[in-house]
Structure formats: C-alpha cells, structure tokens
Amino acid sequence: MPKEQEIKWSKLSSDIYERFAVELGEGLHDGADVTSGDQDVRYGIELQQKRLNDKGLTMYCDFVPRGQFSQSSSGSAEWKDEHYKSRTYWRTCQWKRLISAGDKQISAKQEKVVLYQTVTDVISGEHMDEEFYSCSNCGANVKIKELTKGCPYCNTFFKMDELYPKISNYYILKDYGRTSNELKREILKFVIPAIIVAIIGYTLDMHYSPEMSKSWGSAIIIGILSGIIAGGLFGYVLWAISLIARLFIDAGKAVSILSKTSGSNKRFENYMKRYSPEFSYTYFTGKVVSLVKIIIFSDNPDELPVYEGEMLGNRFDNLIDTSFNGAVACKNMKEQDGIITLSVEAFMTNTYESGGKIIEKDETVRLTMKRRTGGKLDYHFSIKKLQCINCGGSFDATKNRICPYCGSPYQLEDMDWIVTSIKM
Question: Residue 11, Cβ neighbours under 10 Å: how many?
Fold first, then answer.
C-alpha cells in the first residue's frame, strides 16, 4: 500500500468522487468549471466564488486523502425515482482552507475530515432523450437527445457518460480517527521536549550532587530513555484526554441536535411518502442545504425564484463560507389547500469576513419552506432547467421570472420546495 503522503486525488481520474474533490477546490479558488457537479451544485459554487471575488478575497481549498478509508468509496444512504438513482459516498481526508486578502493571508484552517458526496446517475436502461439538460459549454437548456447530436446553440457534442453521473450534494464532517503514523507524530510532539527536560534535569542533578558519577554520557543516555518513556506516556495520555474532551464537547452538540431531529424527521418522511412513495429524507436534507447556499451567497436573494419572504437585503453579505454539520431537523408541519408548509432547522458552521477579520460560528439556520403536495417528485429537478407547464419550453429560472417563450408566470412550489423565510 502506498504511503499516506503519496496518495493524491486527480481531476483526470475516472472516479467522479476524486474529480469533484479537486474541482471543488479549484472552483472556489479561481472560478474553474466544476464539471462533475450537477447544475445546482455548480450554481452554488459560482455564487460563493463571486462573493469571495467581490470582497477581494481568494480561498484556497484542498482535500488530501488520508487514513484507511481514503481510496475506496464507502456508500451509505441510497434512493431513486423512476429515472435517477442517488447514493451518498464518503472518504477520509485532510481538509486545508486558506483565505487571503490580496497578498495577505488572513485565515488558515486544517482539519481531518470525512468528505461526503452524493452521486446521482441515470438508472441503467432508462432512455433520457426527452429530458432537458443545461449545456455545460454555453448554458442553453436543451433536450439530451439534441446534446448528444450537438448543442443547437454552440454545436458542442456530449456523450451520456459526460452528462451523468453528477455530484448533486456534498458536505464535510470532522474525523476523530487517527492512523498509527498520525498518532506517532502527535505523541512525538511531547517526546522531544520531554527528552530535553530529562537531559537538563540529570545534568543539573550530577552537577549539584557530588555523590553522583560525573558521566555526562550517562546523563544524556538516561535523559533520552527517560524522555522517550515519560514523554511517550504523557503525550499519549494528554492526546487521549484532549480527544475525549473534544468528543464530549461535540457529543453535547450532537445530543442537542438529535433531541431536535429525533422522531420528527421520520414522521415527516412517512407523511411525504403518502404523496411520493419514493420520497427520501436524505434527498430532502441535500435540497435544504442547496437552497441555503443559493440564498446566502446570492447578490440579490430577494429576486431568486426559490425565495418568497421578507426583504433580505445585504443581510448575508459578509458570509463567505458555510459547512453543513450533517443534520436537518423538521419542526412544525401543516397542510392547507394542497400546500404543505414546514419549519426546518439546518445546523451549519458559517464563516464571516468583516474588516479583514475572519469569524467562524456554529449556527442554526431556521427556514420555513413550502411546496404543493401533488405532482411527481423529480430527484433531478433544477431551477437552472425549469420546463414551462404551459408551452413546454425549458429555461433558466435564476434569470427569468416568467417563461421567456410564452410569457406565462410559474409557481415554483408546484414543482419543488421554496423558502418563505430564513434566519440565522
């Protein structure tokens, strides 16, 4: 097995997980196209990168594989509808994030994390010719059968395996596990100072104790051996204590989150299955995170078709990064006139920049959401490729409030979730 430091992920890899991990960092840093992400994921990354750009900031974000779960994708939740299947995969890695203002670095963060990615693909044997897709070259919404013959607007040709699979959601969580080499390096931090202290101690003892042998070599050897033993034991105990303390602190947060999510999420899932038997709470969680990112990173959130609520103005202008903490809690739920309204809490770690200073906070994002209960659930729905119910034309709903072909207004809640309020 290769050494940990020799393992690298590549955007040229045939593994979409690896490609996305690399493309994500490049997309946030310089706006490079994240081709392995789906349309809404790419849109969220574009908005965040523009926010950084507008504030004169650059963010370097890198994922380096580490640990025994760094190379093979481990799958967890899986769900599907009649056309698409999705599965969440995870791997262990080292996450490094550097934020700079001009030539000055103002923040550096490095953590051992688990990177989760949701891979969405077409179900084998499904014919997707009539499905709309946004051309990744020019952005036009075109039927897949046309893209495979050449986009009518830019003449770019695509194969089906270039359109799918795609990453439809991603997030990171802390990883408390350590490899044997990582544990040795952490303990070594205590061993070397312990050796120095032991050698000095034995030397001083010989100098002031006439009955002791004046063998400086013995003092050094005894000091090294004592330092290795004492430093190793002390280092291991201190590392274990610090790990337990971190686990207790984060466990306290987790218990608080679980107390809010326990039971209500399952009730909501069962409720939604009455209308859409294929409904998945994991899918819904990804949808919530995607909507939060689109709203908080948008220059004009009040003009977004996915938001209908009080004016937000520049409320989120200083927010430059957000990390999902792995849980969404459903609160109050009611249905009236075929519209279901839901109160949701998403647990995030948000990063703000103000006056050249970086502030990081664990925050609860409270949302009120709604959608119509009727209609088929589309796991690959995107506001970047909305299809007009009246004329069938496909368009980018982030740029059009009405259908550009027939002028018909649209109600987004007929097709997907929209947010009616958002607060930190």
Answer: 17
The first and second tokens of residue 295, run together, are 């709203």
CATH T-level fold of 7-120+167-174? Nuclear Transport Factor 2; Chain: A, (3.10.450)
* Residue in this structure with the two tokens 């209908």, named with its chain if needed: 308
The more confidently predicted of residues 302 and 419 is: 419
Q: Is the CB of residue 380 less than 8 Å from the CB of residue 397? A: no
Q: CB count, 10 Å around CB of 7?
A: 15
Task: Give tens-digit pLDDT for 401-424.
Answer: 677 778 777 777 777 888 999 998
Helix or strand or coil: residue 320?
strand
CA 421 to chain centre: 22
> DSSP string covering 192-224, please?
HHHHHHHHHHHHHHHHH-TTS---HHHHHHHHH
Domain ranges of the chain: 7-120+167-174, 129-163, 180-246, 261-423
Helix (H) or strand (E) holding 101: strand 84-101
DSSP class of 301: G
Task: Write down the pTM of the prediction.
Answer: 0.75
Which pair of tokens denotes residue 127? 């014919």
